[in-house]
Write a structure and sequence with these properties.
Elements: H1 6-15, H2 18-25, H3 34-41, E1 45-51, E2 57-63, E3 69-73, E4 76-80, E5 98-106, E6 111-121, E7 125-136, E8 146-149, E9 160-163, H4 168-175, E10 179-186, E11 189-196, E12 203-206, E13 209-213, H5 222-229, E14 232-238, E15 245-257, E16 260-273, E17 279-281
Antiparallel strand pairs: 1-2, 1-5, 3-4, 4-7, 5-6, 6-7, 8-17, 9-16, 10-11, 10-14, 12-13, 13-16, 14-15, 15-16
Length: 288
């Protein structure tokens, strides 16, 4: 997989950062270096993006004791447990070669690592064969401390509430969010990324439409580039105190204006899971 496809190149050219993007793109490696392997093994959560069998793109939260994600080779990431059976992506990885994007984000240290490639089921859960591995800077990352673990819900608990639009409670969760994750797709693969900002940076246009500013970042424009090529997107919001997850799937596009860029997202499917994550995090320390 090359560093950039035509969608990302088009956005880089429009914004005028092609030279910077070429320089930053040299940090993208096909394999997992030792420092990245050590980081992965210390993480209790991983966000995975992929397309479900019906074509919808989702971003899903996977959790486990540190070590549940680990590099088993220079190009392989093993994820114990795989995708929960109640998750919209539960049936997404049923054979080798499924395009996926992942991001390991540590709120404790404000570090993040992205690994894109293809996945296959395994006896342990699933394995990702990496094609792109790279770190991002801590810009827009909110610091949180891990306060502890809640009991993992047993069979029959943690039911998923599925709707086609947002409820008032879900809208309140989004308005209060300082962090969410976004998965996007393109012909050459899937990417999972992070978006952060002050509470309220995600605008509720309607119960089926969101809008957020595209803050200056690393000049790669992988997310916006994918939206140029495809448009499908999946968002993941997390209630850090209770472990509830809110997953949205729909389509998005970039708006360019004199005051900057923004992404407008129209959802067509919602999945809310109470206590989906056993991780319990502290109140936020917002990014400078």
């Amino acid at each position: 997989m090359r560093a950039y496809h035509s969608g990302s190149l088009a956005v880089q050219t429009r914004v005028g950062v092609r030279d910077l993007a070429e320089h930053v793109g040299r940090s993208i490696a096909p394999g997992i270096r030792p420092v990245a392997a050590a980081f992965l093994e210390a993480q209790p959560m991983l966000v995975l993006g992929a397309a479900a069998p019906d074509g919808r793109v989702w971003a899903s939260l996977l959790t486990g004791l540190p070590g549940f994600t680990r590099a088993t080779g220079p190009h392989t990431l093993s994820v114990a447990g795989g995708i929960p059976s109640r998750d919209p992506l539960a049936q997404a990885v049923t054979e080798a070669g499924t395009p996926v994007g992942t991001i390991a984000l540590d709120p404790r240290t404000r570090r993040r690592l992205r690994l894109n490639g293809t996945a296959r089921p395994s006896a342990r859960g699933l394995v990702v064969e990496t094609e792109q591995v790279f770190s991002n800077c801590p810009k827009h990352l909110t610091r949180r401390a891990l306060r502890g673990w809640a009991p993992i819900p047993g069979p029959g608990s943690g039911a998923v509430r599925r709707t086609g639009s947002l409820t008032p409670d879900q809208e309140r969760l989004i308005r209060a969010a300082d962090t969410f994750f976004v998965a996007t797709a393109a012909p050459d693969g899937v990417d999972a990324s992070h978006r952060g900002g002050p509470p309220g940076f995600v605008e509720l246009v309607s119960p089926t439409e969101l809008r957020w500013p595209d803050y200056p970042g690393n000049a790669m424009f992988l997310t916006l580039g994918n939206l140029e090529e495809d448009g499908r997107a999946g968002l993941l919001f997390l209630d850090w105190a209770t472990g509830t997850t809110l997953q949205l799937s729909g389509v998005a596009h970039t708006e360019y204006g004199p005051e900057g860029r923004a992404v407008r997202f129209r959802l067509d499917a919602v999945a809310e899971t109470e206590a989906a994550s056993p991780l319990r995090w502290s109140a936020p320390e917002h990014s400078p």
